[in-house]
Amino acid sequence: MFTTPRLILIALGAALNFSIGTVVYLLKLPIYLDSIGTILAALLLAPDRRAAFVCAWAAAWASLALSGLVNPFLPWFAMTDVAIALVTALLTVGAAATFRAHPLRSSSFAAQVVLCGVATGVVSAVVSLPVVVYLFGGVTGSGSAFLVALFLESGQRLMNAAMLSGLVNDPLDKVLQVLLAAMLYRVTPGDFIALLRG
Amino acid sequence: MTPNGAFTVGLVLIAMSLTNPGPRGSAILIALALAFAIIEVRGAALVALRRAALIVLPLALFMGLLWVGIVGKAPAEIAAGAAGTRAAALIYVARLCGRLLFIVAVVQLVIMRFDALTPLQLIRALALPVAAKRVLVITLSLIATLRHAIDRAHIALIAAGTLTRAASLRNAVHSWRLIQAVWLSAVTIMLGRMRDKWPVENTLSLLDRSLETGSARLFAGDDRIWLPITVGAAIMALIADRIGAS
Amino acid sequence: MGRRELISGPNFSGRSGALMTLLRDGAFAAQSFYVGPYSEAALSGLSSTIADEIGIYRAKPEIAPGAQARRAFAPLDFAALGRREPQTLSGGEQVLLALHCFSLSAYSALAIDTAFEQLDRENREHALAYLDPHGPVANVALIDNRLPPLPGWRTTERAADTAEFDCDPRRPVADLPRRDAPAIDISGLRFSYRRGPDIFRAVDLSLRGGAAYRLAGPNGAGKTTLLKLLVGVLAPTAGAVTLGGERYRPWRTGNRAIALATQNPDHQWCGATLRDDLARRRAAFAGHAPAERLSEARNGDVAASLGIRSLDAHLYELPLAARKRLSWLWPLSGALPWLMLDEPSLGQDLNTRLRLAEALSGLVALGYGVLFVTHDDDFAARVPHRVLALGEGQIKTT
User: Fold this and answer.
1) Across the interface, do A191 and C316 touch by the CB < 8 Å criterion?
2) Are A188 and B187 a contacting pair at CB < 8 A?
3) Which contacts of B129-133 are long-range, i.e. CB under 8 A and separated by 24 or more positions?
4) Domain hosting residue A94, numbered range
5) What is the pTM of this model?
6) Is residue A189 within 8 angstroms of chain C, CB to CB?
7) In chain C, which residues fall in CATH 3.40.50.300?
8) Which of A3, A18, A25, A26 has the highest number of chain B CBs within 10 A, making it the mutation to test binding with B?
9) Which of C52, C155, C224, C294 could form a disulfide with C282 if both were Cys (CB 3.0 to 4.6 A apart)?
10) Min Cα separation C35/chain B (Å)
């Protein structure tokens, strides 16, 4: 399972997860994209779903371990990362051929991105819920917190409010992340992918 | 004290803070953390505490704005269908942020305890499989490489009119080009290393030798004092408020 | 006396392949330390601090008891820099770090693929002296585009084995009409990074079109900072910049003046294919550059002059020397009046370097302005230029 190229892939995925925060900061983007490396690591091992799951999981936890030193709120979402790796291996990896098809089939590409992104987002929101509610009181510091407030104001209990906010916010975020991962997968040199298979 | 010992102490403290201890239990945990800070971390503890405050403060302000300013009641009051008060919301935010601050402070104290070690020395000391250590080491190196690549590509893409310095729609639309440039340059570098430098030098075997620990023991030295004290304190924290109540 | 192999020849003559074959040979096999082109290929990729990089390679006596005690190569005090990331060093300093690690290691042989071209003259001489056949290193195999045959070295001359990437950077310049690049005038420039010391302190500088300027100064003197200010990545703390007499604030309006070629070509691509990259630049500068200079057809011709004949070429999958040449496309296209090139001649054979120098001189004669950074004094001498000496908060023109 853990050949040298796959260890490199895990490290690359983890480093990408960690570093995207720098890009977001430099470009003043109002989002936080922290799982692109995880999703991309899985895609690069398509169609081997088992390897995709294991390596994506490892990439996610490696970046979490290091990010935790800088942003100590992230390690609490460790199970969310496992869930993202699982959904990616089961679903998104199945779309790998579409993502890499030449010429590009735009409608299939877009449909797969939306499907995989929404599924990943819904699962991510559900798995994150206990941590968001219990540890952070429904507030993780991102703009979604205002959605939570909106739902609370309307009389929803905290758990429901946080769930509704997550189900609105997370799928949008994950669709974007799947899109970026798919675009990077599309342009990754074939030599590198061949090394991962060997 | 070994990193394994310090991480274990930290993990126990954090786990205990999540069990919602009462005043006595909280006092025990804070006392243990302070003892760790004073005895093991010493002067650097102030740096750790300052960092923790800087990390938690923005979130605390945000939570205060949300719960006290906007919602105006605590979750328990919402659940009970009560009218609720801002005072209850404030207490809720204070307890939540207090716990967060404690957790972040413990993490920073453990980090500062080993500030003198290089990353390789720290990773070597951890009780992890060699493959995991390899991944952490390579990831850290790649993070530095990516950071450099991000800086250089950012300059070049601004020069090429593709990105802007300030927030803009152009950045939102074209940020993927920066990510793409960084990803592909990293893949190219790693392909080169895997083809040329590493096979020629057998560099990874050098790394493995550097990661091998001299001792097979998980804990050593002052760990043997801290770990029993930590476990004892954890048990006391669990029962302290219950004894008081009964 | 150790074995010394110098592999010479033009680009695309299979020198790197020959080096790899040599490294499987008896005297080199399983004992070689490798320093590849570009700083990222010099380092192990396994460390995040300089101390760890050294620690990984330092010979452990219990493992290599027979390893000869070798004089260490230490042109810089790397111990004092121990906590820094190796990537914060300049390219040349990273190569010196690699040599330092080799000198402390148990490897008996050293292979260098054009890495010495990143060193300034003094460090290059220092490094070559360390590799003297009578010196402390057993066996060395070297590729370098700027070294003549050396005494005590066996030189293997290779011939080009493909014309696929044949390159003449003078061709696109020959077609360009005259362009009087507007002067860049800087007055009272002041800049410091947050809570840091002044990088520039009340700098007055006048850069004229129709001239070339070589930026010189030690690492940290502000070469990258000046570039960032001129293309608008940073805004000055104080002072004003004019372009052709008019107020120029690229940090607000974007870069309209400078076509940049980065030291590592992979840092500058706007797309994964050449077509995508050119399309992006065309879109970005439509209305700000002559339409003819932005056309896909014209730039396709420029790319062909630089050795890439297909616009669908995958940029990152081209050979390194070809990528470096393609990095000159945007500056040589003539789209923007000023050019900035960072170590443009790295990894290029003599013929290509001469032609590039002619191309840049040609652009200067047409009225373009050229800024460049290079450690290659011979290359610099072929482009008539003035020196911009950066240091101590000032920029002096000599």
Assistant:
1) no
2) yes
3) B130/B208, B130/B211, B130/B212, B131/A2, B131/A7, B132/A62, B133/B211
4) 4-197
5) 0.91
6) yes
7) 3-157, 170-397
8) A26
9) C294
10) 7
